[in-house]
Structures are given as C-alpha cells and as structure tokens.
Amino acid sequence: MKQYFNTAKRSTILVLLFISNYVLAQPKTEEAKMNAFVNNLMSKMTLDEKIGQLNLVTMGRAITGSVVNNGVEARIKKGEIGGVFGVYGADDVSKIQELAVKDSRLHIPLIFGLDVIHGHRTIFPIPLGMSASWDMGLIGASARIAATEATAEGLNWVFSPMVDIARDPRWGRISEGSGEDPWYGSQVAKAMVRGYQGSSMRDGDAVMACVKHFALYGGAEAGREYNTVDMSLNRMYQDYLPPYKAAVDAGAGSFMSSFNTINGVPATANQWLLTDLLRKQWGFKGFVVSDYTSLNEVTNHGLGDLQTVSALALKAGLDMDMVGEGFLTTLKKSLKEGKVTQQAIDQACRRILEAKYKLGLFDNPFKSIDPKREKTDEFTDAHRAFARKMAEHSFVLLKNKGETLPLKKSGTIALVGPLAANHSEMLGTWVIAGDPNKSVSPMEGIKNIAGDNVKVLYAKGSNISDDSLLSARAFPFGQVEQKDKRSPQEMIDEAVETAKKADVVVAVVGESANMSGESSSRSDISIPECQRDLLKALAATGKPLVIVLFNGRPLTLPWEDKHANAILDVWAPGTEAGNAVADVLFGNYNPSGKLTATFPRSVGQIPIYYAHKNTGRPFDGKGPAKFKSDYLDISNDPLYPFGYGLSYTTFSYGAVKLDNTNLKGNETLKATVTVSNTGKYTGEEVVQLYISDPVASISRAVEELKNFEKIELKPGESKEVTFDVTTADLKFYNEHLLYDWEPGEFVIKIGPNSASTQSASVQWVK
Questions:
Q1: Which DSSP helix (H) or strand (E) runs through 546?
Q2: Can you say how many angstroms the Cα of residue 202 is from the centroid of all Cα atoms in its chain?
Q3: C-alpha angle 178-513-480 in degrees, rounded to nearest 5
Q4: What pLDDT score was predicted for residue 93?
Q5: What are phi and psi of 550, to 5 degrees?
Q6: Residue 150 confidence (pLDDT) above 50
Q7: E strand or H helix at 529
Q8: Cis before residue 213, ω within 30 degrees of 0?
C-alpha cells in the first residue's frame, strides 16, 4: 500500500511538471507580452522621457481655448511629447510620426487624436439627433464609418463618445450626447465604443475611444458651460454615472476628465472619481486624459498653483495632460521635493504606453496611414448613402395637423428661411474635418426629389439672428453669418409675397451650428426673434405652414406648435442634410424618430425630464392647484415629452398582458402588447417599456425606461411585442448605494412615449 502511494505521488509530480512545462512552453498571453514589452521599454527611459509621455499637445488646429503649444517638433525629438491632437491627413501625420520614431532616442510612437464626434469627413447628424433614431445598429455603424475615415488620415484616437446625461437644454453640449435617460444613454455608449474600436484596436480601421466627460458634466448649474456641478451620491449613481460605466464594460480604451467639480473637488484632480470609482470599483484598465487645459484650471477652482494641482491630479489618477504642460513643467520638481512619487509617474507612463501597444503602434507606427485610403475610404458614395439614411432616421415629426405632410409632388412650394439654401450650417456643431461646401442644402434636396411637377419659389426671409451680441459670441473665431443687407421688413415682405404664390410654405429655420455645442449655452432657447417674426408673417397668409427645424437642443416652441401645420425636427442633419429632409418631406421615408430629451414649454420649467420624483404634494391636474407642486402661470407638463415622435401613419396599442402577476426570485416576466398600424402608410414605431416602483425604501422616479423595440408595420398590420423583464430591471441604488431590488408591486408600462402608456401591475417577492 505504501509503495502504491509513493508511486501515485511520483506520478502526480510528473503530471504537474508536464503541465508546468507545457504552460511555460505556450505563447505568452497578450497581456503578458504587453507587460514584458512595456517593462523592458520603461527600464530604458529617463525621467524626462517618462514625463514626456504624459504630455498631449496641439499644433494650432482644432483648438477650444486660448492656449496653444509651441516648439512641438523639438520636444517630439527630445521625447517630451506622448501624443498630438488636431493634426490629420496622411502626409502631415506621417511627417510628425517620423520625428518620434526616427529622431527621438527610444523611437516611441505618438498617439494622434481628434474630436471625431459625428463623423470625420462624411458628417452624420449631431449625436442628440442620432440618438433620436433609437437604432443602435445605425448608431454603431456611424462610429465604424467615422473610424474608417479617421484612420485613413493617420488618426488612432477619437475624443468620443460624449455620454454625459443632460437635463438642461440651456447647456450647449446637450447636442453632443444622447439626452436625459441613463439607461438609454448606456445603450448608445456601448454602441459607439464598439463601433469605434471594432473587434480589435490593432486593426488598421480601428480607433481608441475616449469617453467624456468624466463625470457629471451635463449637470452644470444653470446650464452654463464649465459651471459647478453639485448633486447627491444617490443621484450620481442612479441617473448620471451609468453611461460611463457602460462604456467601461464595453472596453473603452480611455476616458477624459471633465471641467466641473464633484463634491467640491475638480474632476481632473479628484481621486475618488479617477481612482476609487473608475479603477477600483469599475475595473477600468485604460488611461485618463484631461480636457483642454482643465488641469491648469484646477488653480482657478482654488486648489493651488500649477505645480500643486499637477501633483494633486497625478496622485488622483490623471495620466495625460492636454495642452497645459503642467505635468511636463512641474512633475520633475515635485518628485525632488517629495510631492509625487516615482511610482505615480511610472504608473501614468505605463498606461499611455499600454494604450499605444493595444493600438499596435509599436509594431507599426504608420499602421493605417496610406494616401490611397484617403481616396478610397473617405467620403465615399456608400458613406454618403449611409449619412442620408442616418439623417432620415433621426428626424422627429413633432406636429402634423390635418396630414399636411407628406407633401405632394405637384403644385408650388414657397421655400423660405435663412437655412433653406444654406450649406455652412448643415453639418452642425463639433465638425473639424467636414467640408460644408460638400453638404446638400434643403433647396438642393427638394429640387433633387420633388420632380418636374413641383415649382419651388425661394425667399430668404430673415437672417439667422439680428442680435449682434448673440452673433458675436456664437462666432468667436471671425467666421460670421453672411447677413443680408436688406432690412428685416424688406426680407419678410419678399417672403410673404412668395408665400402668397404657393400652395404650401416650407420654412427652414432654427439655430446655427455655433449656437449649440461647447461654450454655447443660451438663456433663451426659443427660435431667434427675427425668424419668429418671419414665421408670424407667413402664418398670417393663411397658407399651410411647415416648419423644418434645425436645432442642437430642445427649444421652447409653444407659438410654433400652436400656429404651424407641421413641424419636422431635423437637428443638424450632416452632409446629406438636404436630400434627407426632402426624402421625409415628400414621404420617400416615413419619419420614425423619437425624442431623447424633453422639450419644455418655457425655460422656467428647466430642468425638466420625464423620470422625475413625485413631491409630497404632487399636482395631478385635478381640482384646485393651490398648495400643490405646480406653476401658477403654466402647466407642469412639457410641450413634447421624452420618447415622443409622430409618424405619417398612426399606431394603436392594446392592453399590456403579463404572463404572470406573481413572481418570485430570479423568474422572468413576459410583458406583451399588440401594436397595430391604423393609418395609410407603412411605418416604424419605437415601442417603449417603462417600470414604476410605487413603494420602496427611498423615493423613486415616477417611471424609468428599461427597454424598447423598433418595429415596422404595413397599413392594417398588427404585431405582438414581448419584453422579458427580470430583476435586473428592478434594481436601483438605495440610500446606502447598494444596487439591488426590493420586493413588492411593480407597474409595467408600455407605449409610444413616456407620457402615453398602457400599464399592468405585478407582485414580485424574493
């Protein structure tokens, strides 16, 4: 027996040795290979070279501040720069990359970034518009095309997606995100990250996503850019943080810190945010870059001079300094004085080098740069066709009285408005490389689509704005709106005479591209006054009035809603703007977009969003209003609620049917509704599922979006739509920030928007 055990023991040892030798003989995992490579490289680097990797500079293009970097080429050769942004084009990028890989001591490649927000050369609708499509396939494909075009010009890093939740439309950057809902915003965040990064960031057509702005930037007080953010931890976790977490889970390679404070500490130097939450709680493995000089601006927040705040930011978990050169000029001194550690510098440097490794830049610093690709992979017919489709799906039909739309392909149309024959405003905000001269204006699109039986009469009618202060602030870099030299009344008179000759008036009005986006907050979010005067004069003619609305945010439109026959919100549609607008106006495509941000009746209602909490004295619209939570002079309700959008056809919803009304534990509930097309056109409908939790340990939102399905129905066709509801859909953050669900009653709501749903109740116990 003893001999048997000895034999068995020897056999076990031999097996273990075989397994060990087999494992050692296998190729190293990608992570192990990366670690070995980076360790070897860092062992050769000087302190100056390590700090240099933390330095991101611009060479004067695509700037969003007053600071630019000087002496860039010399610093690249010295190894004092880790990345460059604002440079694109195969020739320019190649020349700069050559300086790094041929003339620097260790030949470390640069990373090249750019604000590729809604397309690179081919421009898609602004992100808020794309989100209105409720189509993750299209949204992800837009990022994939953008990555293909960007890499053709040597870019490998994009400052997108912006996933900030925004519930204040005064904030200009609401245009750059996906609206007000954290669950929906999370779906968009995942689609965009995966679209940019593809199946592998080493691929020649993949870029590294940079998720911004971390964190809570959309909660700026008064909707004013760069302003303070102050909110409870519960609101952070429940309403504002989920899209960032979703981006981490999708594998985002980098994050960008925000300008605002969080719990009184600027995000760029906030250790709780950048280390405790992002890295320790969420497991993020990439690197964090500051926003444009946001590191330097920590000084303005009152935390100390540049050396002090640079040390604070490094220790907090910031890895790369955009433009400000705080790391470059102070970290060496801070190390000598014991204010930072070598370990902290090494950790930041390692994260930058790891990103370059994951992008495959050490294998081939010029991996995607090919002048031929600039001709074959950019602004192609296929990309333009996709841009047209994306735009069509983003449009939201806000009103259509008496089936004014679609227009007939006969008769006379008066095409009026400062944006009707415009090219420069089609692309919208945050466009760096797009060419407005290649965009299609609404006039061109209508002429392309309408056919020979339609006569189009044109009158500009007004300027975009006659407010000199607004114009000066909206166009800070010298570009100015080409204002008509005629008086406002002369322009209106011409438009009215034109309208009298037509069967229908199409007024193309709204915001210019520079009225939304960064540093474009507005206290008055109505259509500019000169355009409103034009609309009033057109309405007075008695002709059917169709408003085609360009906007980068929800606007206050009570007058327009009352007096126009139809309103089609087209946001800023991008390169194929005019063709897409015409396709929808004439019914070649039936609009299916739904709002992802609430439209207020008045700026006084802001912030306004569907997932609000009840007060102790809620106003239900019944009985006396005094001593209830309401306004004396206006309804609590928005003009257009979250999820709202009309179609040229009509849909009806049956009762919500549940397969079980008493569930336990991890059982799955099936909620079904029958949707029918009761109109004359084939159309798409976004069927939305919301859940209410009437009794909980804390006050909950009146309802929360948890799922949706976009379906297409022919006239007279019906379809059953079934949603699976699990306990994951019931979870929330309680007062202790524990993410869990509580047993009790839940109300399942299904409908076309957040304000119009059918419902059924279920009891769910643990």
A1: strand 545-550
A2: 24
A3: 160
A4: 95
A5: -100, 130
A6: yes
A7: helix 529-539
A8: yes
Structure tokens at 443: 């006039």
DSSP code per residue over 119-159: BSSSB---HHHHHTT--HHHHHHHHHHHHHHHHHTT--EE-
pLDDT tier at 12 (50, 70, 90 boundaries)? Answer: very low
pLDDT at residue 621, rounded to an integer: 80
Q: Using pLDDT thresholds of 50, 70 and 90, give the confidence band for residue 408.
A: very high
C-alpha triplet 377, 382, 385: angle, nearest 5°: 135
CA distance linking residue 578 with residue 348, whole number of Å:
47
Task: Tell me how crowded residue 636 is: count the other CB atoms within 10 A of its CB.
Answer: 17
Contact 286, 256 (CB under 8 A): no
What is the CB neighbour count within 10 angstroms for residue 749? 22
pLDDT band per the 50, 70, 90 thresholds, residue 625? confident
Q: Which helix H or strand E contains 91, and what residues bound it?
A: helix 90-103
Residue with token string 């490649």: 109
**What whole-number distance in Å separates Cα of residue 387 and Cα of residue 439?**
11
Catalytic residue among 239, 291, 569, 729: 291
Instruction: Please state, in angstroms and rounded to a whole number, the distance separating the CA atoms of residues 589 and 681.
Output: 10
Beta-carbon count within 10 A of 475 CB: 15
Whose CA is closest to 391, among 668, 189, 589?
Answer: 589
- Is 724 catalytic? The answer is no
Q: What is the pLDDT of residue 479?
A: 54
Q: Are 658 and 669 in contact (CB under 8 A)?
A: yes
Question: What global pTM score does this model have?
Answer: 0.94
b/e burial code for range 659-696 (CB count within 10 A of at least 16 → b): eeeebeeeeebebbbebbbebebebbbbbbbbbbbeee
555-579 pLDDT, tens digit each: 999 999 999 999 999 999 999 999 9
- Check residue 476 and give its pLDDT: 58
Look up residue 533 and give its two tokens: 């005067």
- Per-residue pLDDT at 169 exceeds 70: yes
Sorted by sequence, the CB contacts under 8 Å of residue 103 that are 6+ apart come out as: 76, 77
- SS3 sequence, 436-498? HHHCCCHHHHHHHHHCCCEEEEEECCCCCCCCHHHHHHHCCCCCCCCCCCCCHHHHHHHHHHH
Q: What is the three-class DSSP state of 496?
A: helix
Distance between CA atoms of residues 182 and 288, nearest Å: 22
DSSP secondary-structure letter at 109? P
Q: Of how many residues is the chain composed?
A: 766
| CB contact set of 185 (below 8 Å; sequence gap of 6+) | 163, 165, 177, 178, 179, 242, 243, 246
> Nearest CA to 81 among 117, 61, 54, 41?
54
- Give the Å distances, CA to CA, from 289 to 59, 82, 313, 644, 681: 17, 11, 11, 37, 49
User: Distance between CA atoms of 553 and 469, rounded to whole angstroms?
Assistant: 20
Question: Which residue has 């300027």 as its token pair?
Answer: 463
- As a whole number of angstroms, the distance between CA 59 and CA 749 comes to 53
- Average pLDDT of 409-433? 96
Query: Rounded mean pLDDT of 202-212?
Result: 97
Helix (H) or strand (E) holding 740: strand 739-740
